[in-house]
Cytidylate kinase (Deinococcus yavapaiensis KR-236), 206 residues
Amino acid sequence: MIVTIDGVAASGKSSVAARVARELGVPFVSSGLLYRGVARLCLREHVNPDDEDALLDLVRRCPLDLRPREQGNEIWCGHQDLTGELHTHEVDETVSHVAKHPRLRDWVNEQLRHVQGSFVVEGRDMGTAVFPQANAKFYLTASPRVRAQRRVQERDEDIGEVEAALRLRDEKDAAQSAPARDAVLIDTSNLSLDDVVANVLRAVRA
Ligand SMILES: Nc1ncnc2c1ncn2[C@@H]1O[C@H](COP(=O)(O)OP(=O)(O)O)[C@@H](O)[C@H]1O
Ligand SMILES: Nc1ccn([C@@H]2O[C@H](COP(=O)(O)OP(=O)(O)O)[C@@H](O)[C@H]2O)c(=O)n1
């Protein structure tokens, strides 16, 4: 069984995916971490994120390994764990540049299609481009203000700046962020995490 949870930045995708996967007893997979991993490598190796050929060369030289773990996904590059370096301001600013290239997206999607068995997968285009055959699909949204409030609880940053950055990333990610026609849309603005998880599980089990 494959369950896809797509949605805009900070709408709750990874938190919901982790909880739903635990309830179903299956792994969860965070596709955004592969894009974040490429962005991290770009920054480290001083590669231009707008140069698709250079990005493809980079992932050939430093292949990234996405490891689904119950407590959270990990990204490794050879023997190096990059997981702790993926949610920085710099990576947030770079990642949408990396994610706009079709051949780089094909490379990411190929990694994701290697995942076997049942799983919950979250991102932007999991229910559309990558797993159109999924058994259940969800698309999470929330107002930019609410999403910014949730982010500042995790990181000590200015709420206005966080909201502006989220809106900008939504714009840059718009091309790959359309909900699947058969996805259940959930506006999480006025829902608790428990409510969202309960809604998703109810629909999956129906
Ligand atoms: N419905 C919700 N109500 C309250 N807080 C939530 C809700 N959904 C997510 N959160 C919190 O918002 C933050 C961002 O959620 P996260 O799962 O990281 O979003 P995404 O994966 O979409 O970026 C997390 O701290 C999470 O606990
Ligand atoms: N399936 C996906 C997942 C992420 N992404 C890109 O990767 C970035 C980071 O995704 P993420 O899911 O880790 O980010 P948040 O939504 O958690 O902020 C997004 O802003 C997109 O640019 C994508 O294009 N397609």
